Amino acid sequence: MLRLDLDGSSARQAADAAWSVPRTGLPSGSVSLARPAPEGAGPPTAARRDAEIDDMSACPAPSPGSDLMYRLLVQGVRDYAIYMLDPDGVVTNWNAGAERAKGYRAQEIVGQTFSCFYEADERARGAPERNLAVARREGRYEAEGWRLRKDGSRFWAHVVIEAIRDEAGGLIGFAKITRDRTEQRDDAARIRDSSENLKLALAHMSQGLCLLDAERRLVLCNARFREILGLGEAEAPRGTALRVLLRRILARAQALRGPGGRAAWRSLGRPEPLGRGRVASVVEIAFGGRILAVSTRILPTGSSVSTVEDITERRRIESRIYHLAHHDPLTGLANRAAFNAQLERQLAVSGAATMLCLDLDRFKAVNDTLGHPAGDVLLQTVAERLRQVVRETDLVARIGGDEFVILLADPGPVAERSARAIAERITEAVGRPLRLDGHTAQIGVSIGIASGPQDGKDAGTLFGHADIALYRAKAAGRNTHCFYEAGMSARLASRNRLELDLREAVSAGQFLLHYQPALDLLHPAVSGCEALVRWMHPRQGLIGPGEFISLAEETGLIARLGGWILREACREASTWPGDMRVAVNVSAVQFERPGLEHNVAAALAVSGLAPHRLELEITESVLMRDSEAVLACLHRLRTLGVRIALDDFGTGYSSLSYLRRFPFDKIKIDRSFIGEIDKPETAAIVRAIVGLGSDLGARITAEGVETQDQLPFVRQKGCQEMQGYLLSRPLAAPELRRFLARTPELARAA
Fold first, then answer.
1. What is the rounded end-to-end Cα distance, in angstroms, of the chain?
2. Any idea where the domains of the chain sit in the sequence?
3. Taking Cα atoms as reference points, which of 362, 437, 360, 430 lies closest to residue 401?
4. How does 132-147 read in b/e, with b if 16+ C-beta sit within 10 Å?
5. Domains 205-316 and 501-749 share a fold
6. What is the pTM of this model?
7. What is the rounded CA–CA span in Å between residue 484 and residue 502?
8. What is the mean pLDDT of residues 593-615?
9. For 205-316, which CATH superfamily applies?
């Protein structure tokens, strides 16, 4: 049955009538083209029209006047090309829809074979004949394909060809209906392309996507969604309720974490509540050892779309960036910014804080001697030792170079006791020897301590006062700790002014040397002189070495100053008579700097002084710095031919061990022993030192002989040489020359 339920008023008016169409020129019989719609079916729709217009089975016999009605109905349909073919495929009639679709008027096409609507290649393949044959054999042929208009353009056609037979079953022709489906085909192609693009987009998204309807049932999810959450395709089918989906996801998370699965899914942030009044919410969750960001947007329809992204690596990178911004990359300790922030928070909360400023002693020597890699290892070792001696609640930071700071977590009355105890533990821990690149190194640490609010109510003031206390600790001999006290700021300001003056003095050459003679007691004569530096300050006058040598060492100026002293002493000594020696004190800092042997050799070469006439004096503190490196340097100096003297013997910690390891040419007994040489216990120590020197082949010099009464004791105990005010105070070079001119009578007096 061919039902014409067509859109439009004319179609609705004709919808209740059944039409039987007698065909002029065709064998007797009729074909029903339409019949009434069932009662209650409602007005015809496009869907009903498309579905039923193709039904061309036989209908009941026609009623009178149906031909007129046929013309009114069929000829008025403009959306469909409806026409008849004879058994050979010749067009026998033509409606307005056919004219509109194909461009032919009835008088142009009636009598032509319908194959003219096919493209040439299809005609060549015999497609029109095959299609009729199908309709003839099976009663119906239906297909889609390209068809031609009169002007040669083509359109995509949906074609139905139905065989029409009489009551005896004889073929009387074909009814053919064609509809232009180009627009629908294009729409379908666009939809298909969009669908494919959507599938591709979903498949290649780095995020998982999940769409839920208003009833919270799954509409779709992509493969990435299932992959991130560990779901199989069968576990997330369309229509799955959200609660069921969540149960499966949680089960998967617990499986990933094992027995501790309760912590496998936990929120890392507070989500905004979901609801139609909310546009979106974002929450981060810990899922099976990973971090997932879940973003949900509520759509106006009540449905929702969620994206899930694995941000574990992003958070790891962000965490690393944050760590680098707040930590020292070499040691892993907090940096200055992090320390200042914590200090300010603590002061804001409690108004009190105690901090320790640390500076490593002799670190630069290790760095310069063994290289920066060894220095880095040293800093890392110190950082680890600091972690071990402080409490977990204390904050340790490295603020640059060899400087560290510690913030105690217990401000208040107990803070001072805690600071003192921690400072002592730090001094012990940092001072332990360590191996670096095959060498044994030992450093110390100076510590300054300040507590707020008494030493400062803000971070800047507290930091500055702890730094001042640190300088005080360094000035006190290093490797110790010092609490900030009122008045230190003024002393530091004075020290800073002195440092500026000292720098200018080194550049301007404001120094001169005085020489203190030493007397050979076995063959009474001046054996040599010790060179002692003086600073001719433009405002303060003559300043002794005790006022500025430690500052020169601390600031590194001793390297330039010591080089000048060495050159000037050699130059002056080259003018002295006979084999008189000149003794020059060498600072520990000079041993730490490379090139000491070169400087000594250059001074000898320039002055022309014989090497055996130069005596280098070192104290035991020099050997305590880095004994292996210092001893190696001493041996190299010995190869130059110079003499090596151990100064201030008896005041150090391990004098005897160093005497065993290096053959000193001279041992100078510290003046503190000579001042008490009349006491039996002191006299016994002096005798022991003299005996030790005799066994080692070293000359013994008594320093600080100031009275006539001390001289017999010094002779009696076996000292071969004496030096002190009894013989002469330190003299300027012109005074020394006059002194040497009177040496014979002075020697006889001695």
1. 153
2. 9-180, 205-316, 330-486, 501-749
3. 360
4. bebbeeeebbeeeeeb
5. no
6. 0.50
7. 25
8. 94
9. PAS domain (3.30.450.20)
